[in-house]
Input
Amino acid sequence: MTEGFVDTGRFIPVFANDFNHWAIESYKANFDPGGEHSFEGDIVPLVESQQYIPKADVVIGGPPCQGFSLLNKNRNSDPRRQLWWQFLKVVEVSGAEIVVMENVQQLLTSPEFVDIHLRLKELGFKYIESRVLTAADYGVPEVRRRAIIMASKEKVISLPRPTHVDPKKKKEAELLFSDRKLKLWNDVRSAIGDLPPPVGSEIRNERSPLDLHFGRNPTSKSMERYKAVPLGGNRFDLQRNRPDITPDCWVRKKSGGTDLFGRLWWDRPSVTIRTEFFKPEKGRYLHPDQHRPITHREAARIQSFPDRFVFRGSKVEIAKQIGNAVPPLLARSIADEVIACLEGKTTDLFVCETNDGLQYM
Output
């Protein structure tokens, strides 16, 4: 998120917090070399002390989303669901005029969303917008859907309007957004097509982008499985082509999981990049024509990270950062709308609701 905002040239970060050590180290490497405004650890004592939270115009972030995720079977009792309260406490203490919050889609249909909405109004936010945005609509070569909440105290604010469109919906989109020229979704080829085959299986002592362009050491059976999956195929193709090496659990599971052990298409955006993209059994993460899962560099590019962005930590920790991130290009579109709001130039609205119950289209 910070990468997208800083990329506008209009924002200077003044405070950052994360519980994950390597996420903070990566943040420092890119935005806070001296470690002057980066705080690692639990947000609660920072909020309680208040002395470390500076004044700010805008607060952005994403309280841990695992509590809302459908992948979390214990989500109804997950205490992390309440960290949104601490996030909004930072908003209160900082005196921010605008807040941007990101989370998984399920947030918008959760009881917590109602509480968040009410709390924002209590804090004086008159204009509140929320919607699930698709990253591919903003130039990211990935169909990643995330809930975005944007709120402003004094000036009308809008969610960003799409810059790109699904080729299948081009005609409808052109009618809806007739004032702008929409580009077609970016595809996997546009993101990783220029990279050579990866070398080795560890982080490389090379300049970016080759530093994170390494592979794995698959077993001979894994390699045979890779070869049995065609372009755009998945575990069902593996079972049809090579039932002798298909895991028994997949043979027994007759439905669902169509992305498992799937191969990406060159001419489509990627599926959502998650934290274990280097494991094909976790999703559609096989390279379009090479018999291997995508590399860390390929995943970062699909997430729209520029090659100059510095990641700190082990292979696993860097993968977590890539998979958990807000795509910078999506963040940049959001940042542009925040700038328009601050300057009182918001003109394009989806839906904004005020404290008076009025709605603007």
Summary: The chain has 13 helices and ten strands. Residues 351-361 have pLDDT under 50 and may be disordered. The radius of gyration is 21 Å.
